[in-house]
Amino acid sequence: MPRSAQTVIREGACYTIAAANGRVLEVADFNTENGAQVRLWSYEGQPWQQWTFEEAADGEYRIRNRFTGKVLDLAMGGVANGTWVHQWQKTTGSSQRWQVVPVSGGKVKLKNVLANKVLDLAGMRMDNGAQAQIWQDVLGENQQWRLDPVPDKLLQKDMPAPQPRAAAPKRTRTQTGSRGAAKKTGGKGARRGGK
Length: 195
Known about the structure:
Blueprint: E1 3-4, E2 7-8, E3 14-18, E4 24-27, E5 38-41, E6 51-57, E7 60-65, E8 71-74, E9 85-88, E10 98-102, E11 108-112, E12 118-121, E13 132-135, E14 146-149, H1 152-155, H2 187-193
Antiparallel strand pairs: 1-2, 3-6, 3-14, 4-5, 6-7, 8-9, 10-11, 12-13
């Protein structure tokens, strides 16, 4: 396997995908369904916060969640800035393939092959609950990730039953588009517009 910014990606090994503040990507609420949200959260050593990199092609990987068995994917195959990253069952689609691009300080960018955009955090937030999305490559810290191997002692434990936790503050849900407000496409506003 190729080297990526001081991190050797080993097939079958588990990693956390950590932002600059140490919070990690996880599947929200340990949801095992297709389309479940991928977000940032404080690391708790849980398997829904751990990922494997499976080689999909030369220099390309599918990033699989240890708990759910599903992979990072682009919502509805979107390629626009702001398209949400969620989990989905493995397919042959390039929306599920990622390149590991070294940057300084041992960090990496994760570039989606279909969109040619990088893994990013909505609104440049880095707090618990920040939504993973794709965005054009810029110099922001919210696009740089540290891949840390999960210690073997954590991998040898039985997978725990998920425990409910306090919810993150509610945010307006947008899947694609600019970082601004989303267009209203449903509800009373849409019905009024159609009269």
